[in-house]
Amino acid sequence: MSTSKIQVYKESGAINHVKSLAFGRKAGTSGEYIAMDYIRDTLKEENMKTELDPFLWVSIWGLYILFFIVVILIMLFIILVSFFTIAGRAFGFILIIICLYFFKYYIVSISIYKKIDETQPFQKNNVSHNIITRIKAKTDMMEKPVVIFCAHYDSISINYSERFINSIILIFFAYVSIYFPLSSAIEVPFVFKLFSCILLFSLLTFFLTVRSNNKSMGSVDNASGTAILIELSKIFHNNPLNNTDLIFLWTGAEEMGIFGSKTYCYRNFKSLDKNYNLNKSYLINID
Q1: 228: number of CA atoms within 13 Å, CB side?
Q2: Cβ of 97: how many Cβ atoms within 10 Å?
Q3: How far apart are CA 152 and CA 260, in angstroms?
Q4: What does the domain layout of the chain look like in residue ranges?
Q5: Is the dihedral angle over the CA atoms 266, 271, 274, 277 positive or is it negative?
Q6: Peptide bond into 222 cis (omega under 30)
Q7: What are the DSSP E strand ranges found in the chain?
Q8: Distances from the Cα of 132 to the Cαs of 77, 98, 129, 149, 173, in angstroms?
Q9: Which of 16-30, 35-49, 94-108, 218-232 has the highest mean pLDDT?
């Protein structure tokens, strides 16, 4: 069937989905699980089968914050050495040992999880799920294309605004780019060292107090995309394409580091490449 004959968008249905998903859906919380059940139950009402693909993830926010905290502590050590040589060096040696110990294990945290039972040091393992439904083409032919529609269904909010966080990070990098070249070229005055300590302690306090919470309703990001995918899948379930398979993918833990999308690609690329002509295929992300 030609797509021009299909009603591609049902506005009232999509709006109802957005309203039904108007609650905190932070990855790894009950809100994400409730949203997952809502998507599956809605599709089940249309006699559509769904697959759940669970995966583990560790918050990427923890990695970013750890990076900034470690750099700030090292910078504080360098400045304190110039004030109190013996105490500063003792603090620095202890700090270096701790940082190297954490760095060894946090490198592992960046990897994509292959199994649901993997363990992760220092941080809580969180479980999220990808939701998948497939709509086969009317005809079965070799090397046919596939179109993947995807959207994430989790949401997030942070106790500081994005603009404020970006401003703090900009101040941090501006300070680093000015202080170290300057300190290596000339003897830094005492007043500037004192100002540096105050600034670094302020930055350290900021990064230690950054918290994600579950307050965001996430209507735009990304209940709207989730809703559109639900309606599209219902339409194409009743009107499959002639020569193209469709895959609808709702990913979890996107806001924490695009973990759902990464996991799907890692686990499914070989089978997709084997079963479809990917050179003629498309992925459409609604976010």
Answers
A1: 16
A2: 10
A3: 8
A4: 3-57+124-158+217-285, 62-109+160-210
A5: negative
A6: yes
A7: 51-57, 126-135, 146-152, 157-158, 212-213, 245-251, 282-285
A8: 50, 42, 10, 10, 41
A9: 35-49
Distance in angstroms (rounded) separating the CA atoms of residues 25 and 36: 10
C-beta of residue 225 within 8 angstroms of C-beta of residue 286: yes
Number of other CB atoms surrounding residue 121 within 10 Å? 11
Q: What's the one-letter identity of residue 261?
A: S
- Render pLDDT for 239-267 as a digit per residue (tens, 0 to 9): 999 999 999 999 999 988 788 999 999 99
Going by pLDDT thresholds of 50, 70 and 90, the confidence category of residue 16 is very high
If you average pLDDT over every residue of the chain, what do you get? Answer: 80
Distance between CA 163 and CA 69 in Å, rounded? 20
Which tokens go with 130? Answer: 């990808």
Residue 148, helix vs strand vs coil:
strand
Q: Does domain 3-57+124-158+217-285 have CATH number 3.40.630.10?
A: yes
How many residues does this entry show for the chain?
287
Greater pLDDT, 145 or 73 = 145
Rg for the chain (alpha carbons), in Å?
A: 25
CA dihedral 207→209→215→219, nearest 10 degrees, is -10
